[in-house]
Amino acid sequence: MERRTFITSTGAGLLGSALGAGSILGAFDPSKLVAKPSAFNRLSANRSRPGGGQALSTESNDLTPYAGPWGDAELRHLLRRTMFGVPESQFLAAQALGSMNAVVDQLLACQDTTKVPLPAKLASWVDNMPKGDLQDPAKTNQTRLMAMERQQIENWWFDQIAQENLSIRQRMTLLWTNHFVTGSATVNIPGYMYYYLLLCMQYALGNFKDFASAIATSSAMLVYLNGDQNYVTGKNSFVNENFARELMELFTLGINFPGTDIPNYTQADIEQSARALTGWQHGNYKQTPVAPFTGILWDGTNGNPNWHDTTNKTFLGQTGNWGLSDVIDIIFQQPDDATATPPGIPAGFPAGYTSAYWASQKLYQEFVYYVPNPSVVDAMARLMLANNFEIAPVMQALLTSAHFYDVNVVGAQIKSPVHYIGSLIREFGITYPAFDPTDPPVKEVDKNGFNVYTDTNPTLSIVTAAILNVSQGQELLNPPNVKGWPGGENWLSAGTFQGRETYSNSILNNLFVNTKNNLALSFSADSYAAQIANDTTLSAEALSQSLEDLSLSFTLGPLESGDLDTDLQGTYKNPNYQYNTLGVKEFALYLTSLPEFQLF
Asked: Looking at 13-27, 353-367, 443-457, 499-513, which range is the least confident one?
């Protein structure tokens, strides 16, 4: 595949025009870069990728099972899309499983948390609840502690990403934190964010309808979208519509019915469902002595006052004394022929199709391409409905489909910052001090008498800060707004590309090893190369190709491939090549500077 043709043909997004004239790409003459034969190049040379904003042109446009060759290229594509970079050891472990279906089964095994348990609890301090007004200046110590604890949760999650074995769980978790969006800066309370994150891990491949219901009553969501400010007291109503609106617009339905401009709901539906959702409070409301991380419905039971609206509401064509479970049920019945909602939808769409399509579209954008293929998403939605909104069967079909392995799908995604950093850490064998999930932040007292909390793993904090800074804004558990990170072409620009290159240069040159600040983010060129069997006895060309295969979805053209081979020979370019550490380091620096390293 001529990946330069791909890069320059994808319009405003993928590197070509994102970097602009006179930029890194401007220095290249694509006519001189003829790609080597690719195992994936099964289509004719005139099949090109469309520009940004268009769905990919593919041979299969449904969930027809893949029946083509199953080799290293196909396996690496599957692993790259379902994990955050693929160390050679994990590639070999997957290879040993044999078939595509066996590998996909292993990746999806985390759907059964009894067989693949959730990670061990972060620390006992996540169950501690802050007391009083957090805006009170006297609470400086508490505010500082919570900021450090939120950082520890980010570190813990990235550690789960970095240590993940053959599993899709963490990739799914990132997707759901960017779908059912909350934000740690707004929620503020560390324990709320921790249990929200666990919820996203728990339902990673679970039931989408049940997931939506569970998220609605999580304390993090109640705080983030003001569900705790939505209540009635006697004759007075303080109805807040934020969550009711986003529940339909962003979480379960979308604004319009798929492929049409027909609205899925009205402003009246927002208002009526907001009334049905009144009375929910997050667990710490006024230090109420209840389970602190589960939302509580104040409906006059369990000693709580009645803040829930018990009058009839008409929502999406149905009238009754609705509550949360009713709202979820009605949403997941759309379109509803019995109530003619939404009006104008043609016949032939089964009940629940709208939510199934909305969820399937998000899955497609995450694992195939950021511009959905409507035909494939339709097939995914109907399969989800046939399985009562279970996510796992849909992912099983998608990851074993001919569409997923299409030549135009391979390498078509841009790495998000967390995917970029994850692939750098995992594929290049970057090490950092072991994360102790039970170790609380260390407290000291400054000269003003305030507490100062010291990070117990500052190296991991450097990594999570890099995820935020390297590409302008992917702070774990803190998307920019309720719509989440837009992704796709938005991840790269001239500035962000240079930021990524600067970071990779810094880490590969061990600039984050500093005993004074207790930093130890370390790269060993020898350990990196040792992932490849017989690395010290291979020719420069063979070792170079093996390391390229480890990290790149594309087969390079002769210019860059030759440069990488030369880099492996070291500074003096000895024609009688022998393995040398400096050459491997130069190779790694050049490889991570390539545009291809941004794609997967």
From this structure: 13-27
Q: What are phi and psi of 562, to 5 degrees?
A: -65, -40
What tokens appear for 85 in the block?
Answer: 């970079």
**Tokens in use for 560?**
């860059």
Model confidence pTM above 0.85: yes
390 vs 547: CA distance, rounded Å: 38
DSSP state of 136: -
Reported in sequence order, the residue ranges of 120-263 that DSSP labels E, i.e. its strands, are 231-233, 236-238
Model confidence band, residue 422 (pLDDT cutoffs 50, 70, 90):
very high
Q: What is the dihedral angle through the alpha carbons of 61, 68, 420, 597, rounded to the nearest 10 degrees?
A: -110
Strand 513-514 relative to strand 451-454, pairing: unpaired
What's the mean per-residue pLDDT of the chain?
A: 87
> CA angle, 278 as apex, 275 and 283 as ends, to 5°?
160
CA angle, 176 as apex, 501 and 372 as ends, to 5°? 75
Kindly state the helix (H) or strand (E) to which residue 337 belongs, with its residue range.
Answer: none
For 187-242, the pLDDT digits (tens) are: 999 999 999 999 999 999 999 999 999 999 999 999 999 999 999 987 677 899 99
Q: Which residue has the tokens 């935020």?
A: 468
Tokens of 200: 């996203």
Instruction: Using alpha carbons, select from 98, 5, 108 the residue that is nearest to residue 49.
Output: 5
Percent of the chain scored above 70 by pLDDT? 87
Rounded Cα distance between 84 and 175, Å, is 12
First vs last Cα of the chain: how many Å apart? 14
Query: For residues 190 and 195, what is the distance between their CA atoms, to the nearest angstrom?
Result: 9
Helix (H, G, I), strand (E, B) or coil at 346: coil
Burial bucket for residue 532 (CB in 10 Å: 0-12, 13-18, 19+)? middle
Structural contact between residues 541 and 558, judged by C-beta atoms closer than 8 angstroms: no
CA-based nearest residue to 25, from 9, 1, 39, 47: 9
- Give the pLDDT confidence score for residue 44 in this predicted structure: 25
**Backbone Cα Rg of the chain:** 26
Query: Hey, what amino acid is at 360?
Result: S
Rounded to an integer, what distance in angstroms lies between the CA atom of residue 351 and that of residue 171?
A: 29
Supply 570's token pair.
């070291």
Of the candidates 556, 406, 374, 394, the residue with the CA atom closest to the CA atom of residue 78: 406
Residue 109 CA: distances (Å) to CA of 406, 542, 546: 25, 35, 29
Count of beta carbons in the 10 Å neighbourhood of residue 191: 24
Residue 443: which H helix or E strand, with range? strand 442-445
- Asked if 118 contacts 201 with a C-beta cutoff of 8 angstroms, the reply is yes
Give the integer Cα–Cα distance in Å for 384 and 378.
10
Rounded Cα–Cα distance for residues 446 and 452 (Å): 6
